[in-house]
Write a sequence for this structure.
């Protein structure tokens, strides 16, 4: 709540009152704020978790590409330094952006996909 003294309504012969402004911030669709850091949840494919890859993400500064390391597990957190919230007016320091990975498994497999997974199973993977 912000109070602006002297900016409210005035009655005849009186002095202006105070204006109170209530601000509500809507949640961001993909980012969550924790102090000066930002947290993002990201679903990745099993193939991306096993082999690694690159993904484009939206940050406060626009789009950027992050690298997913090969062998990433569900719950792995990637840190992007300096892409969080500014730490104050006139301060060039910023928090970090943390991307938590979640492996998204397919609900249904095609016949070919099942055969390939059976081959991997035979190889011990």
């Amino acid at each position: 709540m912000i109070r602006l003294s002297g900016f409210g309504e005035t009655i005849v012969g009186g002095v202006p009152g105070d204006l109170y402004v209530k601000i509500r911030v809507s949640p961001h669709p993909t980012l969550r704020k924790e102090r000066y850091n930002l947290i993002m949840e990201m679903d990745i494919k099993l193939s991306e978790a096993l082999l690694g890859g690159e993904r484009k993400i939206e940050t406060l500064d626009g789009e950027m590409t992050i690298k997913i390391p090969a062998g990433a597990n569900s719950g792995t957190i990637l840190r992007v330094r300096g892409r969080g919230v500014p730490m104050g007016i006139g301060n060039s320091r910023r928090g970090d952006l943390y991307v938590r990975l979640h492996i998204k498994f397919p609900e249904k497999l095609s016949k070919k996909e099942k055969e390939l997974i059976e081959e991997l199973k035979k190889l011990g993977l």
Observations:
- The first strand starts at residue 2 and ends at 4.
- Residues 111-122 form the longest helix (12 residues).
- The domain at 28-122 is CATH 2.60.260.20 (HSP40/DNAj peptide-binding domain).
- The chain has a mean pLDDT of 92.
